[in-house]
Amino acid sequence: MTNGGQMDDEALKNLPNGVTLSWGIVKKPRRGPKGELSIPMIVDAAVAIADRDGLSAVSMSRVAQSLGFTTMSLYRYITSKEDLLVLMQNAVCDIPVPPEGYQPDWREEMRDFVQACVLVFREHPWFADIPIKGIPLTPNNLRFIDWMLRIMRDFPLNDFEKMSFVLLLSSYARACGMIQRDMDHALKAGESIDSFNGLNYTAALKHLVKQDSFPDLYPILMSGAYTGETESPIGDDLAFGLERILDGIEHYLEVKRSMQP
């Protein structure tokens, strides 16, 4: 083995085991009998359990039982639940990135990026229940980042500015995705949209919220804007917020271009 190869092997040893599994760069388990397990089978079964019953329902024993194998059989492929969670996150982010040039407008493509991220949270409500422990390292997560960077390829930005915008849009998508997820859960549990938005509580709030105690909230509440008592002229709040973020990016680009010789 060359020195370069040895250095590569040493670098890969620093990665968490779940990450190396996601890249397929670890040793395969010993060959077992026909009909043996595989990492994709285990991950798919775990995702199905989490989608149906929540993240707390996922355990190595529960996944093994759903596949008709012993728990020890799973450990030949995935050595811990923590590694399994990493693989589950990576699996549900396996969303096809649109082809380059499919959108002529960068704002529209950034909207698509945010919507794709939000959809992950809505389709897999448990996704946000896994704590963020660092930068994305798994291939499907990195493809999402690569997509955003592709949109900004010709922007007059340095690498740090581009990564900051990736974080900004990803963070907004995460916040919107969690709100949408929680609304989906509430409606599924029998709550009404008016309860979730607060409309059903308008009268009570108007009784409780006094102008001297809440001087700035009071007029907003009385106007009907707080609980959606009156129709909003700006449309969907989350979409409105995204447009203001895109406005900010566009303004920043204009400033950067004006500074170029």
UniProtKB/TrEMBL annotation:
PROSITE patterns: HTH_TETR_2. One of its GO terms (biological process) is negative regulation of DNA-templated transcription. GO terms for molecular function: DNA-binding transcription factor activity; transcription cis-regulatory region binding. The keyword tRNA processing does not apply. InterPro entries: Homeodomain-like_sf (IPR009057), HTH-type_TetR-like_transc_reg (IPR050109), HTH_TetR (IPR001647), Repressor_TetR_C (IPR004111), Tet_transcr_reg_TetR-rel_C_sf (IPR036271). Keywords: DNA-binding, Transcription, Transcription regulation. Residues 36-96 form the HTH tetR-type domain. Gene3D superfamilies: Homeodomain-like (1.10.10.60), Tetracycline Repressor, domain 2 (1.10.357.10). Residues 59-78 bind DNA. PANTHER family: HTH-TYPE TRANSCRIPTIONAL REGULATOR RUTR (PTHR30055), TRANSCRIPTIONAL REGULATORY PROTEIN (PTHR30055:SF151). This is TetR family transcriptional regulator. It comes from Paenibacillus prosopidis.
